[in-house]
Write a structure and sequence with these properties.
- By secondary structure, this protein is of the alpha+beta class.
- The protein has 18 helices and 14 strands.
- A hairpin with a 5-residue loop joins strand 2 and strand 3.
Length: 505
Amino acid sequence: MGGIVSKAANQQPTKSLERERQSTDEKARRASESAQHTDVFLPKSSNGSISLSNVEAWESTASADPKIQLARTVLAHSNIKTTLTSRETRIAVPHVFSHEVEFRTGPVTNQKSSGRCWLFATTNVIRYEVMKKLKLKDFQCSQSYLFFWDKLNKSNYYLELSIENAHLPVDDRLVNFLAADLISDGGQWDMVVNLLETYGLVPLPLYPESFHSSASNSLNKLLKLKLREHALTLRNLSATLRASSSFTSEQVSAMLRAKKEQLMQEVYTIMTATLGVPPKPDTPFTWEYYSEDGKYSKWEGTPLEFYKAFTTRYTPSECFSLINDPRNEYNKLYTVDKLGNVWGGRQVLYVNTGTTELKAAVVRSIKAGQPVFFGCDVNQFSDSSQDIGIMDLDYHQYQQAFNIQLSLTKAQRLQTNESSMTHAMVISGVHVDEKTGSPIRFKVENSWGEDSGHKGYMVMSDKWFDEFVYQVVVHKSLAPKELVRVFESGDPTVLPAWDPMGALA
């Protein structure tokens, strides 16, 4: 027993010294780390400008990397978007799908130099039923017809907002925002429903393309010039009338609207001169056509009757938008302040949910034979070049080429204006995993002509969908019942007018 005590006593000084050495080593390590962190947070430029020391340090790092040297050799003479592409990704995401909408439509449409993608996507969905019922080989609804009525109504909508907000300073954020892009070519699903329910549809030969429907920039510039002038006229008149004690508020509103209607005459004149006088929604027309077997036929009725006759299976007014906006709470209803086209028309509404629910609704719709209108940020990690047509996160090899990380989340891209809903197209097919039933890729019908993508079509990967698809439009009968209930609750959270969910596809 004595020997055991003696051994323990002899070990105590050794352990004490070991603890001291460990403590010293730990202090040294922390001091080293502290020095490193201090060095990181000591700028080479004390005033925030770029100094030559900055440039020298950056160049030293870049020139020491063989990968960067190769990138410098190649990319000074070529486009990074077309050069840094993955052959492996293109092979891995083929234009082949296990489920497609049974009926094939044509021709591939082309919105040309305009922002009418949402109108093309809508009419591309509707024409499935038209062509199937009438046994047509090729068919297009008149996108210009909807374009005319939308542009006219957006002009009126802006002037109504100008009257409504005439009490605000002209440099108020809201007033300034509304004046920035007051009559964009783009739009949202509920806005096109407003047009369809009010004006109907006509076949393309009844209201064909004009120069300015296919290239809208000059028309838009002139209309914006006049509308901003008209808005100031209404603001000044409002101030004069409200300063007088001779009129009631109802009389002031009536006089302002009467003046607005006079000003709208100029808008109508410009539009009919550049786009043509459109058919009236309640005036009958006769449309003569050949069926796919070459037989002559004709259809007679009004634009509203035409719309009602060929949207019987999945009525547009019974469809609604599911969105994926990870900034905001899921399973909630949202709208965007001041967003619309037809004054007093249907409100733009979104049901926010996860991408899993969006994709499930798409798969259900495709299996039911219904193509799907959707909104996305099309220019992110995509290639619409002829014979390619791919949307996939791994297609562009920017991270590998530049030794960088692209780490923004979907929510962060929305928060920083890096991404938003910029384009509307149609999903007409899906490839699902045989074992899980989960979607792998989607067939996308675009409206950039048959020389874009794979004969006018794109293929979209499941991962790309997660990151850059923001909206799908589904019929109530094909949507989850709990999300339909959210839509029908009628109590939306109102996002500010400048929120990215107000972007017009």
